[in-house]
Amino acid sequence: MIDYGTVLPAIQIPLLGNSAAVGLFSLLHIVPAALSVAFMLMAPVFEFRGRSDPFDRELALLVTRFTVVVFSVSTVLAVIMVELMIGLFPVTTMWMWNHFRVPILFGAASFMLMLLALYPYYHFWDRLRATSITLHMILGALAAFFMLPWVFMLDGMGAFMLTPVQEGGTWERLFTPTWLPLVIHRMVGNLMIAGYTLAAYGAWRVWSPGEPALKPYYQHLLSRGWVIGLVAFLLQPFTGLLYAMAIHRAAPDAQASIMTGPYVPWLYLQLLLLSLFFLGNDVLTKRMRTLTGNRQRWLDIGFPVLAALLLLSAGYPELRRVCVYLLVGVTVWRVAASVSKAPTESALSPSPVRSLAVGLALLSFLLYLTMGVMREASRRPDTVRGIISLQDELRHQARMEGALR
Q1: Cα(first)–Cα(last) distance of the chain, in Å?
Q2: How far apart are the C-alpha atoms of 126 and 350, rounded to whole Å?
Q3: Among 133, 225, 352, 382, who pairs with 199 as Cys (CB 3.0-4.6 Å)?
């Protein structure tokens, strides 16, 4: 007879463990998926601007091509992730699917409509544009629009797992206190990593051997991507504060587990990445723009001091918040008190701008993923906070093993 009331040993995937295995493939899926969502939103905007700027028109085609190409890889990783979730966490997976059956079907239908708009938008690019540029832009806008319900539905389920709402029906459960803050925070994060990815690609191609005629296009790509990534990055502390306040009101103990609990090393890692990111952006600003004004010398000293103070402020939330917003303000001041200049090729190889752009792209991914891991870890030891725990999964596993004997 199996005693289901006792703590049972977990069946673990060797080396990684169950949670890490699901988490690994989730992260591998999230990175290309996040880029695809951001690029899909950017494509019709770039094409609209491309009516007067041929570089933006080419940029619209570039981001659309990337989205179509990575869909196959992202889909395979998503299938592996779902199979692991069903096999290793069946209680949580089936409970969530049953509670959100209708939103999932709605999101899947919207996803199919997105594909029906996206693939003609890309594969018949020149033919449709020759017929009607407006019609082609509308098709791209429809692809971006139909992607949003799928993204919002997934974010709603993720928000529910941290701050569940038991009252109401299927649709009402999506409207948790943290749903919209999470949607906003992640969408801005998607734009951040997409912008820095474009900047890194442009910087790499500018200083790579190739046709000299293409270098102005890649310089444009570097500048455009950097501006998009920087604006999104500077918005992240505000969207993050909105999301943190929503979590604090709905699940204060979950937030406390990150700030003072066993996962506090993730907070230190986040602050380290954030400090490096601010410093890297500051150096790249000085490389990309000509700074003006007499106060720039003082900022050259004060900026690294603020970044170091941010790293040391992990245990002091108010100080941490002040440091972040001061760094945001100084960054905005730097950019405002400067004159744009096109990056020129350096005698150094590789160019400092290229190294900085690639480094910031990598940091943006690490920062994005670190924030996601912290959010997921704050639910431990539950999979659905206050409803399903890891121990419930183990009990189910024990029942299945007992039934097979």
Answers
A1: 11
A2: 36
A3: 225
Check residue 350 and give its pLDDT.
54
Enter the pTM of the model. Answer: 0.87
Digit-coded pLDDT (tens) for 353-389:
888 999 999 999 998 888 887 777 777 778 888 888 7
Contact 29, 73 (CB under 8 A): no
d(C-alpha 403, C-alpha 183), whole Å: 42
**Nearest alpha carbon to residue 280 among 344, 352, 380:** 352
Enter the tokens of residue 272.
Answer: 């380290």
The answer, yes or no, to whether the previous bond of 262 is cis (omega within 30 of 0) is: no
Q: 389 in the Ramachandran plot: left (φ > 0), alpha (ψ -120 to 50) or beta?
A: beta
CB-based burial of residue 9 (10 Å sphere; 0-12 exposed, 13-18 middle, 19+ buried)? exposed
Q: How far is 316 from 259, CA to CA, in rounded Å?
A: 9
Q: Computed over its alpha carbons, how large is the radius of gyration of the chain?
A: 23
Contact 389, 381 (CB under 8 A): yes
Residues in the chain: 405
**Residue 277: phi, psi to the nearest 5?**
-65, -45
3-state class percentages of the chain: helix first, strand second, coil last, to nearest 5: 80, 5, 20
DSSP readout, 308-339?
A: HHHHTTTT-HHHHHHHHHHHHHHHHHHHHTEE
Note whether 67 and 115 are within 8 A (CB). Answer: no
Q: State how far the Cα of 346 lies from the Cα of 354, in Å rounded to an integer.
A: 10
Which amino acid type is present at position 351? Answer: S
Residue 285: its pLDDT value, please? 82
Residue with tokens 């998607």, as numbered in its chain? 190
- Say if residue 324's pLDDT is above 80: yes
By three-state DSSP, how is residue 93 classified?
helix
303 token code pair: 């900026």
Q: What is the phi/psi pair of residue 207, to 5°? A: -100, 20
Contact between residue 68 and residue 43 where contact means Cβ atoms under 8 Å apart: no
- Scanning 207-295, the segments in alpha helix (DSSP H) are 215-250, 252-259, 264-288
Dihedral sign (CA 59, 198, 333, 347): negative
Cα–Cα separations (whole angstroms), residue 206 to 45, 47, 214: 24, 22, 8
